[in-house]
Design goal:
It contains 12 helices and 8 strands. 54% of the residues lie in helices and 13% in strands. It has an 8-stranded mixed beta sheet, sandwiched between helices. It is of the alpha/beta class and 270 residues long. The longest helix is centred in the C-terminal third of the chain and has 22 residues. The structure holds NADPH dihydro-nicotinamide-adenine-dinucleotide phosphate and (2S)-3,4-dihydro-2H-pyrrole-2-carboxylic acid. NADPH dihydro-nicotinamide-adenine-dinucleotide phosphate binds next to helix 1. Pathway: Amino-acid biosynthesis; L-proline biosynthesis; L-proline from L-glutamate 5-semialdehyde: step 1/1. Keywords: Amino-acid biosynthesis, Cytoplasm, NADP, Oxidoreductase, Proline biosynthesis.
Length: 270
């Protein structure tokens, strides 16, 4: 299905790089099938050098030859980029937008009758542990859906959801790695505060979050039950959890997700 297809990225920033790294690592595409376009020559040199992919500063030409076209620019410039390339995008091209807040209706207005897919992935696609939510556009048939599912499931887990839920997804799993990195960093600092060497503190912190997440996914148990298994009566964990509850960690995480989801909605209105 994806064999020999030309896959291109308009915007070669952080998320495009994470996807390129992930799909090449998964062996889904060969480097010569992949083209990246970016406004910065320096960035194109870096991507070509690091991943041996093709690069081009000509967005319209890249859009014209793409069979799968990723829109990976910031929400603030997507309208300008679409205006520049829209007339070159062929009706057979599958267009996959990961632009936060940018709606299928806006995509279809710019690219009439083109099969479009709106996806919200996250940066762990770079290491095969991404979380992506997919919503298909009006002109996307089952084949288009299969292409999007194949790409994103090669670099992590995929859910199909109605587009109306993608802002919520953005607040939770799209931005979520950011929250997780803050937590990992904070726990590592805490380990140093408690006397651990920095390198070991960081490993202890990151591997602990990785292990806990894996337990939730592999056992299918409710996190509350798994938490109870760690929490010996009168022991250390409940002393720690008491402090987290006192400081409102749950409410802070909840407010973070809602703030990010609201921001995604706001970006979509511009
Ligand atoms: N980062 C993430 O975790 C996720 C991001 N997304 C979405 O992915 C998109 C990209 O995000 P991210 O990678 O973080 O952003 P970046 O800013 O890292 O990447 C965007 C890239 O596009 C370049 N660019 C700007 N204007 C143009 C243009 N006219 N033509 C071609 N390239 C251009 C930028 O260059 P310059 O920097 O010089 O402006 C930059 O290199 C966003 O829409 C975001 O909402 C979705 C899920 C997760
Ligand atoms: O911060 C952002 O706007 C993007 C969208 C989701 C993750 N990063």
């Amino acid at each position: 299905m994806l064999q020999n297809k030309k896959i291109s990225f308009l915007g070669g920033g952080a998320m495009a790089e994470a996807l390129i790294r992930g799909i090449l690592k998964a062996g889904l595409f060969k480097p010569e099938q992949v083209t990246a376009n970016d406004i910065s020559q320096e960035r194109l040199h870096y991507l070509a050098d690091r991943y041996q992919i093709r690069t081009s500063p000509e967005g319209a030409a890249v859009a014209a030859e793409a069979e799968i076209l990723f829109l990976t620019v910031k929400p603030q410039v997507i309208n300008q980029v679409l205006k520049h390339v829209a007339s070159k995008v062929r009706k057979e091209t599958t267009v996959i937008s990961i632009v936060a807040g940018f709606t299928i209706a806006a995509l279809e207005e710019a690219l009439p009758q083109v099969p479009v897919v709106r996806v919200m992935p996250n940066t762990p696609v770079a290491v095969g542990e991404g979380m992506s939510a997919i919503a298909l556009g009006t002109f996307a048939d089952a084949g288009t859906g299969e292409i999007a599912s194949a790409i994103f499931s090669s670099v992590g887990q995929v859910v199909n959801l109605p587009e109306s839920l993608l802002d919520a997804v953005t607040g939770l799993s799209g931005s979520g790695p950011g929250y997780a990195f803050v937590m990992i960093d904070a726990l590592a600092d805490a380990g140093v505060r408690a006397g651990l060497p920095r390198a070991q503190a960081l490993l202890l912190s990151a591997q602990t979050l990785l292990g806990a997440a894996k337990m939730v996914i592999e056992t299918g148990e409710h996190p509350g039950k798994l938490r109870d298994m760690v929490t010996s009566p009168g022991g250390t964990t409940i002393a720690g959890i008491h402090v987290l509850e006192q400081r409102g960690v749950r409410a802070a995480l909840s407010d973070a997700v809602i703030a990010a989801a609201n921001r995604s909605r706001e970006l979509g209105k511009k």
